[in-house]
Amino acid sequence: MIHAHVGVGKNTKVAMENKEEKPISQYIEHTLLKADATKADIEKLCEEAIENDFAGVCVPPYYVKAASAALLEKKPKVITVVGFPLGYNLIAAKVEESRKAIEEGADEIDMVMNVAAFKSGDFSHVKDGIESVATFCRLKAKPLKVIIETGYLSKEEIVKACEICAEVEVDYVKTSTGYNGGATVEDIQLMRENLPAKIKLKASGGIRDRKFAEALIKAGADRLGTSAGIQIIKS
User: Fold this and answer.
1) Cβ atoms of residues 47 and 32 within 8 Å
2) Domain boundaries, the chain
3) Which position among 77, 94, 107, 110 bears the catalytic label?
4) What pLDDT is recorded for position 17?
5) List 160, 200, 202, 222, catalytic entry
């Protein structure tokens, strides 16, 4: 059974006070994770990220090297996914995925939590998985975002997942892969209230217009994973 306190308002206040003012483009991770994405698609994604001053590009592991080459020393970060999209990969496999991605030029890792283990109540395994990848990323000085896949979780379970991420002291907690629902303002608010101010939030999935993007930022999101970045900044 999950026993978790919902709502720690002071965390939200401190986190929001610490947020810097910046243009909406700097919240956006320009994302392309479709199975049929081509190298040309990824190169175009990188060009658009440079042109529009996005925070980064989020690409499949296969394209990390190509994205890194396309961006060179440009400002946008190269972000990739680990254990994506289902999260139930073995812990050692996730660590190896992270190692290879960082070797090939990834600046940040977005790892899917083991939702299957979480739903089975095996919280120690969930924590071990997060901690193993987090430890490796720290050794390489690369931020880790943990995708908790809110679409599968109750409010109490979201709080419990945040509690585990807080214990490990990950860099970000991320709402979703986008394969099972997406971000909501309510989930971001709940996550913000139940995480230390130093842990940032990434909202992802279904973010397609500026109004929704701004609402997520206001609720506490520090990054937005979206394939509609250009549409958002020009609307």
Assistant:
1) no
2) 9-234
3) 110
4) 63
5) 202
| Buried b / exposed e along 18-51 (16+ C-beta atoms within 10 A) | eeeeeeebebbbbbbbeeeeeeeebbebbebbbe
Neighbours of 233 (CB within 10 A): 17
Q: How many other C-beta atoms are found inside a 10 Å radius of the C-beta of residue 144?
A: 26
How much is the pLDDT for 14?
63
Using CA atoms, how far residue 186 sits from 5, 198, 219, 234, in Å, is: 16, 20, 8, 25
Minimal CA–CA distance to 191: which of 3, 6, 1? 6
Class of 9-234 per CATH?
alpha beta
Catalytic residue among 174, 187, 200, 222: 174
Write the DSSP symbol of residue 19.
P
The sign of the torsion formed by the CA atoms of 218, 143, 110, 196 equals negative
Cα of first residue to Cα of last residue in the chain, in angstroms, is: 45
- Nearest Cα neighbor of 223 from 147, 126, 163, 138 is 147
Look up tokens 């929704």; give the residue: 212
pTM of structure: 0.93
Q: What is the pLDDT of residue 15?
A: 63
The answer to whether residue 110 is catalytic is yes
pLDDT for the residue numbered 46: 98
Q: CB under 8 Å to 80, separation ≥6 — which residues? A: 58, 59, 60, 61, 64, 101, 106, 108, 109, 110
Catalytic (active site) residue 119: no
